[in-house]
Amino acid sequence: MVTPTTPPAEVTLGLVQMRMSADPADNFARALERVREAAARGARVICLPELFRSRYFCQTEDHAQFGLAEPVPGPGTERLGALARELEVVIIASLFEKRAEGLYHNTTAILDSDGRYLGKYRKMHIPDDPNFYEKFYFTPGDLGFRTWDTRHGRAGVLICWDQWYPEAARLTALAGAQILFYPTAIGWLVPEKAEYGAAQQASWETMQRSHAIANGVYVAAVNRVGLEPGPNQGIEFWGGSFVAAPNGEVLARAGTDEETLVVPIDLRKVEFARTHWPFLRDRRIDAYGGVTERYLDG
Known about the structure:
This protein is α+β, with helices and mostly antiparallel strands. It has one domain: Carbon-nitrogen hydrolase (Nitrilase/N-carbamoyl-D-aminoacid amidohydrolase, 4-Layer Sandwich). The chain has 5 helices and 17 strands. It starts with 9 loop residues before the first strand and ends in a 22-residue tail after the last helix.
């Protein structure tokens, strides 16, 4: 029987920003080493980028890529759980889930520091844009917005395109999250970078910092890096992984190359933020029925 423990007020996050090769086994092995590195530097909750086992295959619609998928829980979570138990760290890992023949999800698994598989989140918002053809591969999530009590705090997980939706952040915060983790694969289409690149990256960061402020939570966004080949000259993943405090302050930000951020946070600041900026208290839940409508005509 597992004895519950009270999470510490102070915890150190590890954000693994990495580039992916064409070899899934190589990517997995390097991810495990980066987790070890983060743990050696004091990280207790370590998050990997979105779909870290492979290059971003959604740049094209290719049935062969379904061969990358695996059950969750399954072999990947077993290896990650063993490492979490060895290092006594929480691991948050994005995987391509095969649920059944013809049914796949973009899924993140949560492994506690004793190696237990706590559960998974299935990406709710699925994009479909040039070089981001995720609707071909992924069924929208059906598990809702969830949080997990880990040994090192209450974590909520959302994935990449979910970043743009305040409803997702709010519902996950209302489920008790102290930290919102966003495993991510976002970058520039090469021909667009010069004209739109700076604004796109600024919008991405600003949106997530606003989630931290509006919900009084920490936000940890974990991106990949590197130019990956594909149509339209491929995607240049911009990195820029960061941790934002409940007041929106960026505590640490990665550059454009491989990097592991190790960032101490104080979970007591969640309550401080929520009592000083009581947005949850002052919500008019009686007046928000329209948010479940597609559009308010007239």
